[in-house]
Fold TlpA family protein disulfide reductase.
Amino acid sequence: MNDKTKTWLKKRKWDIVFVAFIGLMFIPSVRMPVMSFVQRIFAGSPSEIAADEQKTVNSMDWVLVDLEGKQHNFSEAQGKITIVNMWATWCPPCVAEMPSLQKLYDKYGDQLAFYFVSNEKPATIKRFLDSKNYTFPVYIPGSNYPKEFESNSLPTTYVLDQEGKIIMEEVGAHDWFSNSFLEKIDGMLQ
């Protein structure tokens, strides 16, 4: 390579990176991992809702079906800190935050109630979970959502305290294993 070419490449390196990134978005098999990676980089820590804006889930009677077809009721979570994550396998921000949610489940799986809820077919969900080695519990709604969980965006994650009050409601990818969130959970468990 001559000096002129090297100089041109040096001046244009970010242009080349940008064009390459855009080009990757046109390849379907690469699009999801790249988009998830970028969203993971920019995922922030979840934040608490102001106390006067927190609402309580009025009806804990919500039927959920696990991937083996067994029915569960959301009321089983009463008295526990609860994480409810509405997600889908085709959603890049959902996929982006899953590693941090898996770490959270690994750390607190027996101390918190976890509900990962998707409207997809069990076979699709199982394939996704197996490909990523995720072990958290996933459910399909068997009845209408509590009205407090109605959202038009994926992912939407709710954190409920032991009294069933929604203390966090986050839309989009977040880092659920951030130090500030772990400190919040540890404080609530004491």
Q: What stands out?
A: Helices lie at 3-24, 28-42, 92-108, 122-132, 179-189. Strands lie at 55-56, 63-66, 71-73, 82-86, 113-117, 138-141, 156-160, 165-171.
